[in-house]
Specification:
Two copies of one chain form a homodimer.
Chain A lengths: L1 E6 L3 E7 L2 E2 L3 E3 L1 H9 L4 E10 L4 H9 L2 E2 L3 E4 L6 E6 L6 E7 L19 E4 L4 H10 L6 E5 L2 H6 L1 H10 L2 E5 H8 L4 H11 L3 E5 L5 E5 L2 E5 L13 H16 L4 H18 L6 H4 L3 H15 L7
Parallel strand pairs in A: 1-5, 1-10, 2-8, 5-6, 5-7, 10-11, 11-12, 12-13
Antiparallel strand pairs in A: 2-3, 2-4, 8-9, 13-14, 14-15
Helix pairs in contact in A: 1-8, 3-5, 6-7, 8-9, 9-11
């Protein structure tokens, strides 16, 4: 069984979509990544921080999902990272209404000893300084370091981010961010430019329009499953990353073909995430639902043509 | 060899993109459809109208491509339909600067006798009254009537358009137009609603984000090939339709599987169209280039996963 180390936020989210709104619910990049990865046969651990306002039931939830929480620091008297956002009518864009870093502001990540030899390290979206600290604590070079990040870090901590990018094998990033990072409009050219910065594999996430995987002259594409309703896109990118990392940690195979498969598994899981608010859909997601939808994915994309 | 009847505009286009601009060049829906369909073993004919300003060399071009021009009416003293447009920087939207209907304003289409038994009728984008007239002139129900249309006709001639839609087997339409036609934001729901209006098959074109095919509970998706540069999107949708119709006319097989294949062939050809201004790339496109890119398409989308 592969070992997967996850670093990222564990948070409270308050979300408003055209379909409804929530008070503070469980959220955060590491949360979504961990829940998605728990669909695979992996030993995973979350490195993150919360305040003592973080309910024990959520910590128990992680444990139930076989996620090691020994490196989930609970700061006495501290408050958990809080994000509040509102989606526009098309769900493709959103406004951040509140960001309270709270305990995250002074977080020093500590990698648990028994995860210093992890096969895969998944660096979820947060400060690149924290991501780098996790890389530096590893006993040996993991088979795969996967980085997820966003425009906020490009705008504010580009130098540190560039350093992390240099050390990663795979980056997952959305289309606008890929363009911003490289000043290339064409995603093909942007992916080429990013490969020169370090990562051998570049995954460009296009939300409802699917995800592209680039590696040298290889390109692979996985669509998002067309859904009757998208309810809440929060966490879809993290869920993609969690499915991607979970599959690679289980299989331990970093060939292009297997990374293609990881893109499919990530896309498949992300299609569930958006069906309910926050983590709701991911928490009680069953293997047979995942497998059933995988077959839909296959029908959606596979064809058989003989050329004349 | 299947027979394909094409109705649509034959036009002069003047195009401005971020990469350059053209004076009047060959354009029009029927032109792009005919050129794309000429990649297949089909007997095709264009029903359309031009003025006597339309160069003989263009008519010869159609003939060279084995496209019957006996129903391409040339109006003495008339002027050819003219469209001038300018694309925005992202190439995803454009402004129409000039539309001169000219001879198209009073066009009465006449289907050539030897094409009244066509296997496939491709109704390219133009006035639904003209499209309906072509349907009515057929001697027998074609195997497949394919309709392409756009928001202009929804805004101005919805009743006539609805009538044509009722008679068609396949509609190709872009995502925004599908939403406008049905008042459904979800493309899954929009496709369901359109199927209730008549067409068994609904193809929703999403430009650079690919195309979706819906039929009852089946869904299939083909991405657009990621290109280093998109030079001019003009005619990409018509080229898609031409490849789609050409494949179906050659094979004569209207199963869901074969319509999936038609979507792939259409997407493949459209990826060439956008590489140069107007029809330039399509005119001298060779079969071996098409086949080579088809293999890229396969690599882009096909995977092989065994579920645990």
């Amino acid at each position: 069984m592969g070992k997967l180390l996850i670093v990222g936020t564990v948070a409270f989210d308050a979300i408003e979509t055209p379909f409804g709104k929530t008070d503070k619910i469980l959220g955060g990049a590491a949360t979504f990544i961990g829940l998605a990865a728990s669909q695979f046969e992996v030993q995973s651990a979350i490195v993150s921080v919360v305040g003592d306002d973080f309910p024990q039931e959520y910590i128990n939830l992680f444990k139930d999902k076989n996620i090691d929480t020994s490196a989930l620091e609970v700061v006495e008297g501290g408050k958990t990272f809080f994000w509040k956002g509102k989606y526009h009518n098309d769900l493709n864009s959103r406004d951040t209404l509140v960001t309270e870093l709270n305990t995250l502001a002074d977080f020093n990540p500590v990698v648990p000893t028994n995860f210093k030899d992890s096969d895969v390290v998944m660096l979820g979206n947060l400060h690149p300084g924290i991501q780098m600290s996790v890389i530096n604590q590893m006993d040996k070079r993991p088979k795969l370091i996967i980085l997820d990040t966003m425009n906020f870090w490009m705008n504010n901590t580009l130098e540190e981010l560039t350093q992390v990018i240099k050390y990663t094998d795979v980056i997952t990033i959305n289309d606008e961010e890929a363009r911003q990072l490289t000043n290339e409009y064409s995603l093909v050219k942007a992916a080429e430019a990013i490969q020169k910065m370090g990562p051998k594999y570049v995954v460009i996430k296009k939300g409802e329009h699917g995800a592209l995987l680039f590696n040298e002259e290889n390109v692979f594409f996985a669509p998002a499953l067309p859904l009757e309703e998208v309810f809440d896109p929060t966490g879809a990118g993290d869920t993609f990353a969690g499915g991607f990392a979970g599959h690679l940690a289980t299989t331990g195979n970093t060939s292009f073909n297997n990374i293609k498969n990881a893109v499919i598994h990530g896309s498949n899981l992300a299609s569930f995430c958006v069906e309910r608010f926050g983590t709701q859909r991911m928490i009680d997601l069953h293997k047979n639902e995942v497998n059933k939808r995988f077959h839909q994915f296959k029908a959606l994309t596979q064809f058989d043509i003989e050329l004349q």
